[in-house]
Amino acid sequence: MSENKFLLKTILPELCIELKELLKRRNIPGLTETVDSLMVFEKCVCGENACASIYTAPKPVESFGDGHENIMLDAECGMLILDVVNSEIRFIEILDRPEYKKVIDKI
After folding, report:
1. Cα Rg of the chain, angstroms
2. Which of 6, 17, 32, 76 has the fewest Cβ atoms within 10 Å of its own Cβ atom?
3. Where do the domains of the chain lie?
4. CB 20 within 8 Å of CB 37
5. CA distances from 42 to 5, 54, 74, 90, 95 (A)
6. Ramachandran angles phi, psi of 30, nearest 5°
7. Per-residue pLDDT tens for 40-55?
């Protein structure tokens, strides 16, 4: 991936809308308020065909460390799982969402 960062809401506004709605349903307002400012730092390079996951902060060298939690969102299709560290969304795992993968693959 290039060294460019992208504002998530400019490249995938539909994903931002979906994330905010799902976070509201889970009653996690602190994270909901951060979605519009999320940056895409890097895409996942696992090679899995169904993966469109993205780092919204610099990729950690090893693990996310202390303060890390996974938040599985109740998406209507596919899977959306947030890696959150100290109340900051650091990674969005996006699986089986070809409409998002098409966009992510271009960056």
Report:
1. 13
2. 76
3. 6-104
4. no
5. 8, 6, 24, 11, 16
6. -60, -40
7. 999 999 999 999 999 9
